[in-house]
Design a protein that fits this description.
alpha/beta, globular, 10 strands, 258 residues
């Protein structure tokens, strides 16, 4: 496997608490990988390690052959909370990220990012003037505008209603297909993981969580949710994730299953 993003023997502890241990994962360029597991298994911690927001206690993370030792524009991050600055317009929120990374074509790059997520018509609106789904689109545009090597998504649709969530999942698939982005995403939603992913990485329960199993998702792209709802392969893959979570990693935590 091509080592584009490589997580090698990574572990992290906070004081006496060991959160993650022995994490080995290699992600190919252009691959979409999701992390799923019960609450407290360290999914977001692992994402923050890749983002450079945390440093591992053990092991190393490499992106395109270079060690990750802090935040950088080669990784774009989208959190569950859109984190937009309320006093800036949608355009200005994206432009702020662009001007931190580039010195030329700032307006062009900003407009292109907003167009990619279908928000050209709302670029002069403020965050309080647009819906929750549109705010998340701005967050995705902001991350994509810096042209990162890897897009990191931490439950970006978790706070949205089911219909808006489904719409943005479809939009994300379209954007990834168009840009060829490499994506690492955290989710609690089993159907979302199978629908979007090339591989689903299933985490064991914490503390000292590990990668329990990795599920290949050999479904053709582009993917249509209505067709997959009746696809036996999709149902089998979905069942495999549920079996891991509810039988192999029995836990009282509730996961979202559509």
């Amino acid at each position: 496997m091509d080592k584009y993003l490589s997580i090698e023997g990574v572990g992290i502890s906070f004081g006496a608490s060991e959160i993650l241990t022995g994490i080995d994962l290699t992600i190919r360029k252009g691959e979409f990988v999701t992390l799923i597991g019960h609450s407290g298994c360290g999914k977001s911690t692992l994402l923050n390690l890749v983002a450079g927001l945390l440093k591992p206690t053990l092991g190393a993370i490499l992106l395109a052959g270079k060690h990750v030792d802090g935040p950088g524009p080669d990784r774009g991050v989208v959190f569950q909370n859109h984190s937009l600055l309320p006093w800036l317009t949608c355009y200005q929120n994206v432009h702020l990220a662009v001007e931190r990374v580039f010195k030329d074509r700032l307006k062009e790059r900003t407009h292109a990012a907003l167009e990619l997520v279908g928000l050209s018509h709302a670029e002069h609106k403020y965050p309080h003037q647009v819906s929750g789904g549109m705010k998340q689109r701005v967050g995705i545009a902001r991350a994509l505008a810096i042209e990162p090597k890897v897009l990191l998504l931490d439950e970006p649709f978790g706070a949205l209603d089911a219909l808006t969530r489904a719409t943005l999942q479809d939009e994300l698939m379209r954007i990834v297909a168009k840009t060829g982005a490499t994506v690492l995403m955290v989710t609690h939603d089993v159907d979302e993981a199978v629908l979007l992913s090339d591989r689903v990485v299933m985490m064991s329960n914490g503390p000292a969580a590990r990668i329990g199993e990795v599920l290949e998702v050999p479904l053709d792209r582009p993917r249509e949710r209505l067709k997959l709802a009746h696809d036996a392969r999709f149902m089998d893959l979905r069942a495999a994730v549920l079996e891991f979570l509810y039988e192999k990693q029995a836990h009282k935590a509730k996961l979202k299953v559509a």
